[in-house]
Amino acid sequence: MQESLAGDDFKDIREAVAKLCAEFPAPYWRRLDSENDYPTEFVSKLTGSGFLAALIPEMYGGSGLPLAAAAAILEEIHRSGGNAAACHAQMYIMGVILRHGNETQKREYLPDIATGALRLQAFGVSEPECGSDTTSIRTFARRDGDRYVVNGQKIWTSRAGHSDLMLLLARTTPETETRKSGKKTRGLSVFLVDMKDAAESGMTIRPIETMINHATTEVFFNDVPVPARNLIGTEGDGFRYILSGLNAERILIGAECIGDAKWFIERMCAYAGERKVFGRPIGQNQGIQLPIARAYAEMRAAELMVREAARRYDSGRTSAEHANMAKLLAADASWKAAEACLQTHGGFGFAREFDVERKFRETRLYQIAPVSTNLILTYLAEHSLGLPRSY
Fold first, then answer.
1. CATH number where 377 lies
2. Are residues 245 and 65 in contact, defined by beta-carbon separation less than 8 angstroms?
3. For the whole model, what pTM was predicted?
4. pLDDT in tens, 103-122
5. pLDDT value, residue 6
6. Rounded CA gap, 4 and 310, in Å?
């Protein structure tokens, strides 16, 4: 068993999360993966235990914990062999409302989100035509009296079918105007959408079949009214608001990757010690030992970066550079650990009962989402190293 790094103040939280996750062993996740089903029981248990309300201030019914505590929660879920993708969005979406929402919105929604009466799990940003170029989104919210009327399409909107609320990024100023002014990040706004009301007035959801069980969808808006009171912050400043949420998202996803890496390392160490070929444990062979040891070292290095990024976020010194590096290094560490684990298990790594192939597929996602490895590298090249912008 790998001990946590020194200086971790969340031992009790980690133990409590591990105990909860023990109630949902591998067969539970294996069945959900096979049936492409949503872990309703797990999410309900996690919510009832207060873990999904970790970042909500106590005055609104939450625990008021720092982002580092949320990272510890998500890491332990993945280390247990589970997958927090069914519920992690609530944690990083929360920051947008807490930092930029008004007091009325916080009092109206946060207490019910904290208890689980409302689920805030859907994040509507990506679109089919623009991919990672967020400033080119086309979904438009037109002001009409005391409401906005939304038209457009979102894609890769995970959990839309299992969420009561969606945080939606939409254009409120035509793109031609913002680009003409040279301020392409302006003119985007953030809304809190009631999914039930939207479904009754022109919103449709279409599931997307993928290689992992991620409950992801396309969402179509056809003259969907959204009350003007559901605008978060100031109209036109939404891109800036979303960025603060994306930094938190990268850190939390990095923590999940660390959890995955620890799961893979623990699994392959156990298997390498038990599996005997040619009369000796395969873990005695350097060809098996060295990839495992390297995976361990790279996981530990990435873990330090995730901790540092969370510390900076919690101290108010949010750093896009650190958040991006945390996600990059942690995703690389989990993917290398996954490959080493599959190789260590040989043919048994492909057997569903060992769960390696499931976790292998799940952790591969983080080379692409929530931001691709290449985009992180281009960001660092430009903003950290001063190289010319490449896109």
1. 1.20.140.10
2. no
3. 0.95
4. 999 999 999 999 999 999 99
5. 52
6. 16
Residue 35: give the domain boundaries.
Answer: 11-115
Residue 2: inside a domain = no
Write the pLDDT tens digit of every residue in 227-239: 999 999 999 999 9
1 located within any domain: no
Please tell me whether the peptide bond between 227 and the residue prior to it is cis, using omega within 30 degrees of 0: no
Q: What phi, psi does 226 have (nearest 5°)?
A: -130, 125
155 assigned to some structural domain:
yes
Please indicate, yes or no, whether residues 222 and 246 belong to a single structural domain of this protein: no
The Cα–Cα gap between 1 and 23 comes to 19
pLDDT bin (cut points 50, 70, 90) of residue 85 is very high
254 and 368 housed in the same domain:
yes
Contact 339, 263 (CB under 8 A): no
Residue 368 shares a structural domain with residue 244: yes
> Are residues 212 and 311 both part of a single domain?
no
Paired tokens of 114 = 């904290």
Domain count across the chain: 3
Residue 349 lies in a domain: yes
Q: Of 111, 138, 103, 113, nearest to 124 (Cα)?
A: 138
